[in-house]
Every structure is written in C-alpha cells, then in structure tokens.
Design brief:
alpha+beta; SH3 type barrels; Alpha-Beta Plaits; 5-stranded antiparallel sheet; 3-stranded antiparallel sheet; 10 helices; 12 strands
Length: about 375
C-alpha cells in the first residue's frame, strides 16, 4: 500500500496529488456553502433596505469576488505540488492575468457606482447619467492602463523603461492630436462647470438648438428646423452660449412710434394706455413706459415688461395679445402709427422789376 502512495507521477507522489485534490475539494465546498448561505442572507437583508448600495455590494461579491476566491483555491491547491519551473511560471502568469482582470473590474465597478450614486442626488439625474458615460470611458481607460502596468511589473519586467516610453509616446501623440485633446479637456470643462446640460435650449453664436448628447469630442444639438447640429466641445467652450433653460423670467423691451401730427394731449395718454393693456395680462409684470425720442419720422415711445415664465410659446402668445390690444386702443383713440415718410415743402417765387432790373423773391 505504501508503494502505491509513494509512486511518482509528473514529479509528485500519489499522496501529493491526492492532498492537492482534497485541498481543492474542501476549499470549493467551503466556498460553495459560504456563497449559498452568505449571499442568500445578504439578498434577503437587501430586500428590507431602501438604498441600492447593498444591492451593488452583493452584485460585486457574486460577479467578481466569488470567482476570484474560486480561482485562488485552484491556484493555491496547484502550488502545493512540485512542478517544473516552466509549468509554475505559466500557472503564475495565468493566475496574475485573471486576478488582475477581476480586481480591475471590481475597482471600475466601485468608481462607476460612486459616480452614479453622486449623480442620483442631483436634479435631472437621467441627463447627467448620459453625460457621465464619456467620463466613465476615460476613467476605465486609465484604470486598465494602470492595471496593465501593474501586471507587467509583477511579471518581472522593468516598468520604468515602459513608463518612460509611454511618456515619450504620449508627448508625440499629444502633439499629433492637439485638436482631439483640446476637445477632451473641453469635455471636462463642460462636465464639471456645467454651462449647459442635456435638454437645455441654448443659442451658440447664431445657432439655436436643444442639447441632445454631450460626448468626449462633440456635442449634438437638435435645431428648431429639425436637423442635428454637431459642434466640437472646444468650439462650444470658446463661444458665447445663451442658455435659455435657466432663464426664470423673460425681459421684453419694444418701441412704437406715432406721427408728429399727434396732439400733445394724446401723447401724454399713450404711456398710461399701454401700461393698462400690459398689466391686464396674466403672468406679466410691467416695468416702465416713456416717451423716449424725437425720431426722423416719428415720436418714439419705449416700453419694458417681464413675462414671469421662460416658456417661449407663452411669451409669443402674450406679446401677440398686447400688440393687438395696443392696435385696437390706438384705433379707438385715433392715434396713428408712424411709418417712414418725408414731407417736401415748396417755396413760392415772385418776380419784381426794380430800376429796369428783374429779380426773384421767395415767400
């Protein structure tokens, strides 16, 4: 019997192989029951809570931590055996690859959950989640690059040389892709400074539209005429952007002109007439009204009022009602609106004969 136990296969006795197998079976069994009991209880507990943090932790444990523990059980069971240097190196490298993959996935998931948990505390969380997708791509790229450097370092290679090479290569890439990097940094400006968000109606220079998507390089607007307008992030951060969504009330200033033949008594009544018309409208606050200027062909009045709602359609409806009421009131008062005209005054000439000389005299 002892001879059977001491027989050597691939550099290990039967007893060594059985010990490794028993270690693996025990570890797998313990992990299996821990998974069944612990995760089942955690899931039952999470159903009683209102936050999503416990659900996230259970998901991380189930998707990443448990497979990592199973991997560790297999790895350390195999390490109890005496294997050749080549086989040991292959197993070690494979373990490092898989271990790094799961650890990076855990770190990425934690950062993603932290960002989205912060966003959930803000208003318009759906729009902000769309905006954060570009940031998550960049964060994941950085995490995985650091993970690859960590893996290479653990494989025994000189990381200093690789980092130096990456630095030189990074400078070359930066010089070759200045525009792309400029848009990338502008994306960070838009994300953190928030001059506008998805769903905001903005005007960039003379281009109005609703923000549909904010990407790493471009931002897309849906214009009033229906087409999609694509702008680079650098262009947006360097431009004057009017954000109408954040406007709480709309200030309206308008002028009207009447003819010079209008009597003074009627001129004095015009500010009061217009004021009463504006104040009769709901959601409107009258500010001022004055006789402001002697124009080239009209006597000018200026009026200012506020629409207490940023909605553009409401503003247009109120403006239409006010203009129609003003036209009706002026028609009733027989006050004429001025329009570009010129009056030509002709002088009458008389012929006078004096001392035999002819001369013209105007009157």
């Amino acid at each position: 019997m002892m001879q059977v136990w001491n027989r050597i296969y691939w550099g290990n006795s039967v007893q060594d192989w059985l010990t490794a197998l028993a270690t693996l079976i025990v570890a797998m069994t313990v992990l299996y029951f821990l998974k069944r009991l612990l995760i089942a209880r955690l899931k039952a507990w999470s159903l009683k809570t209102k936050n999503d943090l416990d659900d996230f932790l259970i998901s991380v444990v189930e998707r990443s931590l448990v497979p990592l523990l199973y991997l560790g059980a297999v790895y350390f069971s195999i390490r109890t055996l005496t294997l050749s240097a080549t086989v040991n190196k292959v197993i070690h490298v494979a373990y490092l690859f898989v271990f790094t993959f799961f650890m990076l996935r855990i770190i990425s998931s934690v950062i993603r959950e932290a960002i989205f948990s912060f966003i959930k505390t803000k208003k318009d969380k759906r729009e902000k989640q769309k905006e954060a997708k570009g940031l998550l791509i960049i964060v994941n790229v950085v995490i995985w690059m650091l993970g690859i450097v960590f893996l290479i370092d653990n494989l025994g290679y000189d990381v200093t040389t690789i980092i130096a090479g990456l630095g030189i290569g990074g400078i070359a890439i930066a010089l070759a892709a200045q525009t792309i990097l400029g848009d990338l940094f502008s994306y960070f400006v838009i994300f953190f400074d928030r001059p506008f968000e998805i769903g905001d109606f903005i005007v960039v220079e003379d281009k109005p539209g609703t923000v549909e998507y904010i990407g790493i390089k471009t931002t897309r607007l849906k214009t009033l005429s229906g087409e999609q307008l694509i702008c680079s992030n650098t262009y947006l951060t360097n431009s004057r952007v009017h954000n109408f969504k954040r406007m709480e009330e709309r200030r309206i200033a308008f002028k009207l002109g009447v003819t010079y033949q209008t009597p003074q008594a009627k001129l004095r009544r015009i500010p009061g007439i217009v004021k009463s018309i504006i104040e009769s409208q709901a959601d409107i606050r009258f500010d001022r009204g004055h006789f402001s200027n002697f124009g080239d062909f009209s006597l000018d009045f200026e009026f200012v009022y506020y629409v207490l709602n940023p909605d553009y359609n409401l503003f247009m409806d109120k403006q239409q009602d006010i203009y129609l009421d003003i036209a009706g009131a002026f028609e009733q008062e027989k006050i004429d609106f001025a329009y570009p005209t010129q009056s030509l005054f002709m002088e009458k000439a008389e012929v006078v004969v004096s001392n035999g000389r002819v001369a013209e005299r105007t009157s």
